[in-house]
Amino acid sequence: MLLCLMLPLAFTSCGGDDDDNEPKSGSIVGSWYTSIYGYGEATVTFGKDGKFTATYTEEGEIYHDRGTYKYNAPLLIITTTWSDLEEDNDDLPFTQTLQAYIDGDELMIVDDDYYQIYKRKK
């Protein structure tokens, strides 16, 4: 179950990012990537408009998520409104309250005792 809670965090941008997503120091806005140990890779893009998009790979399969977020350091509230993982999306929207810490080009997202570190995409 914990993996299911963290998978929606593995988000990516699907090309065509515009200048509105240009990163600012200490801002979560922009694109972030990580390796999910033993599962694959993930990229998430947080837009200025409070929306996120995500793409991640798991054992050669590609998945996409999208939804909304609110970030008031250190709280990150993510609501997934659409996901490839949900066959009919009946369980959505799904909201998670997490902690997120930014240190330069690193973003650490914490869910209880589990954490994942993302690097800012340039």
Describe, in plain words, how this protein is organized in 3D.
This protein has 122 residues and is mostly beta strands. The chain has a single domain (2-120), classed as Lipocalin, CATH 2.40.128.280. The chain is built from 1 helix and 8 strands; from the N terminus they run αββββββββ. An 8-stranded antiparallel β-barrel has the order 1-2-3-4-5-6-7-8. A hairpin with a 2-residue loop joins β6 (94-103) and β7 (106-111).
Q: What is the CATH domain class?
A: Mainly Beta
Distance between the termini: 32 Å
Biggest sheet overview: 8 strands, antiparallel, barrel
Relative helix content: under 10%
* SS elements, strand count: 8
Strand order of the largest sheet: 1-2-3-4-5-6-7-8
Instruction: Assign the structural class, choosing from mainly alpha, mainly beta, alpha/beta, alpha+beta, or little secondary structure.
Output: mainly beta
Number of DSSP helices? 1
Compressed to H and E, one letter per element, the order equals HEEEEEEEE
Write the layout of secondary structure elements.
Layout: H1 2-6, E1 30-36, E2 40-46, E3 51-58, E4 61-72, E5 75-83, E6 94-103, E7 106-111, E8 114-120
Antiparallel strand pairs: 1-2, 1-8, 2-3, 3-4, 4-5, 5-6, 6-7, 7-8
Keywords:
single chain, 122 residues, mainly beta, Lipocalin, 1 helix, 4% helix, disordered N terminus
Can I get a quick summary?
This protein has 122 residues and is mainly β. It has a single domain (2-120), classed as Beta Barrel (Lipocalin), CATH 2.40.128.
